[in-house]
Amino acid sequence: ARGGQLAMYPGTQCVSLLLSALSGVTPRRHKSSAQRQRIHKNDINESIESVRRRKETVQRAEPPLSYICLLQNADWHGFSTDPHVDKWNMRMVFFCGISMSLVLGSVFLHYLPDHGMRQWARREAERQLKRKEALGLALIDHNYYDPDKLVLPPQDD
Known about the structure:
Elements: H1 2-8, H2 12-23, H3 33-60, H4 65-72, H5 83-110, H6 118-135
Helix pairs in contact: 1-2
């Protein structure tokens, strides 16, 4: 008898009937069409009431401050409700945020220490060139080190 009932119900209802048969709980009976219509009308009435309540709360709610400020001042920047103070604060923020950071950032980068020793190496090279010109030596020697000062290993034959 149970197998015949399962064949009548498509999809997930078969699973619920099977589980109810295993657990010993009788499945819910289908409601009559009159009961379904009453439930459907109740659902519709409840949803209409909830929409009415939502409309009432939306109509009673005050608009946000940003919307009011935008209506009063089309060039509102979000700093103040007063248009003059709003414009002044916007200009100060952009001046300090952009102009000052570019100027102070450039000064900071310029006065960073020379960790790569590039400036020192150039000055030292210029000093060596001036010294060699004054002594009349070749500016570039073919021996990087003085060969007399190099200690070489003994030559074994």
